[in-house]
């Protein structure tokens, strides 16, 4: 840094309009962050992911809780095959009788699919699900641990 005779750094004059207030990479990063927040990318299979999902485990079961706003029981299907739980469905756009002019359209209407690999200790025959207020709760009970039967064997004298 150079200083002028009065001890201050020299003033650099630039033409109006060419001054950059912010770092362009910071601005680009901000725009990209906003883009990813506003856009929910489809998964590799071409379907859309459904809402936020929590997976918890207790001593007796695993539980998957997922938000599926706007879906009814008829809109959602789930099943298991080869150790994989698949949840799929569709959030359908409401049918209106007369055409309407949309000012803002922020809701998404699309098919979705999500898969989960099941742990070996899940009892597939006892899986259950419920839907309440747009929240799907799937309970995956654990298998009862089979303990080897203990047997006392008497020793015979020969």
Automatic annotation (TrEMBL):
**InterPro entries, from UniProt?**
A-crystallin/Hsp20_dom, HSP20-like_chaperone, Small_HSP
Q: Where is the SHSP domain?
A: 44-158
Q: Cross-referenced CDD domains, in alphabetical order?
A: ACD_sHsps-like
Transmembrane segments in this chain: where? Answer: none
Tell me the protein family, please: Belongs to the small heat shock protein (HSP20) family.
Q: What is this protein called?
A: Heat-shock protein Hsp20
Tell me what organism the protein belongs to.
Acetobacter tropicalis
Write the lineage as a comma-separated list.
Answer: Bacteria, Pseudomonadati, Pseudomonadota, Alphaproteobacteria, Acetobacterales
